[in-house]
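Help needed: design a sequence for this.
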């Protein structure tokens, strides 16, 4: 799951390609269509994590997942 930040607070109706961020307007719309999910596999890093020593993160071994939620005051 990934959050998608928007320029305007609250809910709004998506009525056109520009405001909805569709097609060539993907990065111009009201909301960040990609969200804060940086997907290494989608971006070409096919060997970041998986089962086996050939991956940077061997999921057969213990590893730590860290999640941060930064507040308005930066903490």
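Sure. Designed sequence:
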């Amino acid at each position: 799951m990934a959050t998608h930040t928007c320029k305007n607070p609250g809910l709004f109706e998506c009525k056109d390609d520009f405001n909805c961020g569709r097609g060539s307007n993907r990065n111009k719309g009201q909301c960040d269509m990609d969200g804060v999910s940086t997907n290494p596999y989608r971006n070409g890093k096919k060997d970041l994590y998986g089962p086996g020593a050939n991956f940077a993160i061997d999921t057969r071994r213990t590893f730590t997942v860290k999640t941060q939620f930064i507040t308005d005051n930066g903490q």
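Strands lie at 49-50, 57-58.
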